[in-house]
Amino acid sequence: MTAIDVRTGAATSDPPRSHNARRRSILVMVGRRMLFIVPVIIVVSAGLFAAAAISPFDPLVGYLGTRYMTTSEADKALIAAQMGFDNPWYSTYWTWLHAVVTGDLGVSRSFNQSVAQVISERLPWTLLLVGVSLVIAILASLVLGVLAGIRKGGLLDRTVSGLCVVVQGLPPFVLSLGAIALFALTLGWLPVAGLTDGGADPTPAQVIRHLILPVAVLAISQMPWLLLAVRESVVGSTGEGFVAGAVARGIPTSTITQRHIVPTSLAPFVNIIGVRLPELVVGAVLVEEVFSWPGIAGAIVSSARDLDMALLAFLTVGTTLTVMLGSLLADVVVALLDPRVSTDG
């Protein structure tokens, strides 16, 4: 079996067994990484309960609320014993772990709802925010990164590179506050926060209008790393021999860009997406809090403040699992796009 080398244009031998070996090596990598996920989840969850045991926050404060100051010390001790707040952390952890394994996620004290209900009500809004932001960031970074890399040193390249350096130094909450000050308070174009206007039903028009600012902020906060990765990859690709050969053969620049430069730039780009997933999670939490978006972020903050371990532990494990699976997916895609990438890691 023969194939055309996109770099040289020459026919190369490409036996099926090499493809099979590559697929097997990728499957082995996936299996190895999946096995690694289990001990990581155990360590993270156990570490969370251990850290909560020495936390300065008192779970009684979150449980009693305004009644905390008027409750006697004897009653506080009785409630703490009944709620299990005085139990050793490893006992609490084992109880939680056994319940989760049997399908019982527990009840959130912060929201007075089952953990499953809290997640089902809030997760879709977080997925909407993060999903739209990530799609916009990826598309914009690909387009601008390719154009800037092809025209290295040009006006567009200098402009986007400078903006990337500035945005990299600004935390998402600073971008959020700046966007609110300009577009909501000064210009009055968009609402300050929330899912809808006060008392309004969550119609698609209302949700879209309130989604614009948080999506824009989260997308812009993620773009610098993605855009610069594409730019650097494109700049490197334009200096390769296969591009020079394509130019010498008179192939149009647009064809060279679409068929040679962009495909070879995708692998590093996908890898950066996988590496930056934790930052995307943190950015989403900050943006949701600033814009009062009813997603998972508010649940994370509330559960951490009140030491609501049933909800906090599930959210922590879920976030860790999401990041690890996202990173694994990115590595698989990179391995499929670029045969030179090792699968031993």
From TrEMBL:
It is a multi-pass membrane protein. Its main location: membrane. The chain crosses the membrane at residues 34-54, 125-150, 162-187, 207-228, 311-337. Residues 123-330 form the ABC transmembrane type-1 domain. Keywords: Cell membrane, Membrane, Transmembrane, Transmembrane helix, Transport. It is found in: Cell membrane. The keyword Cell membrane applies. Pfam families: BPD_transp_1 (PF00528). InterPro entries: MetI-like, MetI-like_sf. The keyword Magnesium does not apply. Belongs to the binding-protein-dependent transport system permease family. This is ABC transporter permease.
